[in-house]
Amino acid sequence: MSCNWGTELWDQFDNLEKHTSWGIDFLEKYTKFVKERADIELSYAKQIRSLSKKYHPKRSREDESRYTWCLAFASTLRQLNEVAFQREELAENLNTQIVCELTRYTQELKTERKTHFQDGRRAQQHIESSWKQLESSKRRFERDCKEAERAQHISDRIDLDKTDGEKARQTAQQKQQAAEESRKDYVTILNQFNQDQHQHYHTLVPAIYQRIQDMEERRIERIGEAMRLSAEAERKVLPVVKRSLDAMMDAAESIQPRMVSLLLAESWSLVICTREFI
């Protein structure tokens, strides 16, 4: 089977209309998903920033600048702020690169889809109108032929020398002429219908369906591109987040229990000596 909707799906207009409508619904659903994802990232960043602020000491004790575990915790809080900033960047990129663009594209897609299916319905209405005109002309031709045959039969049965015979002969001629006119009209309309039918199935419908197919393939491609951009937006912040996590690891590894013990011993020994001196 070829991949040309104009030739393979020429009788699936209603199904194509439903399918493309569902495709737009999916596009709107995905856009909503990314929007909610961005909102979650913003909320997460806000909570992380608030948590960091909450535990950051409002007044630094002198001891905190001496002890490695205090310094490590302060460094962790600073790095959390950086992580929060990166999540905000991610949310911003998701909104500007994906949500806004897909929202705009969806409106354009709806307009384009409406145009294509309006063209399809007009083409269908035209061929149906042409068919009805042909059927009407055919019925008229058949009726006129029967009336002509009946009038000729009556004329043949009546003596032409009589007045009724002349009248019947004239009526038969008129009916025959009307039948001939109907035949010519039927032939003309039949030829026009054949042209309309050929144009409908070989030109109009294939062109309209091809545009619908192109539109649908662009929609699918756009969704794939949006998914790629979403992953790329998150991948972009990962190196910075990794550096922050590495800094947290370095801060944790900088904690030296033995040094703290020595500091305490030296500090308290100095206090004791000072008291004894006094």
From TrEMBL:
GO molecular function, one term: lipid binding
One Pfam family from the record: FCH
Keywords per UniProt: Coiled coil, Lipid-binding
InterPro entries recorded: AH/BAR_dom_sf, F_BAR_dom, FCH_dom
Gene3D superfamilies in the record: Arfaptin homology (AH) domain/BAR domain
Span of domain F-BAR: 3-260
Entry-linked PANTHER family: FCH AND DOUBLE SH3 DOMAINS PROTEIN (PTHR15735), FORMIN-BINDING PROTEIN 1 ISOFORM X1 (PTHR15735:SF22)
Protein name: F-BAR domain-containing protein
Species per Swiss-Prot/TrEMBL record: Mastacembelus armatus
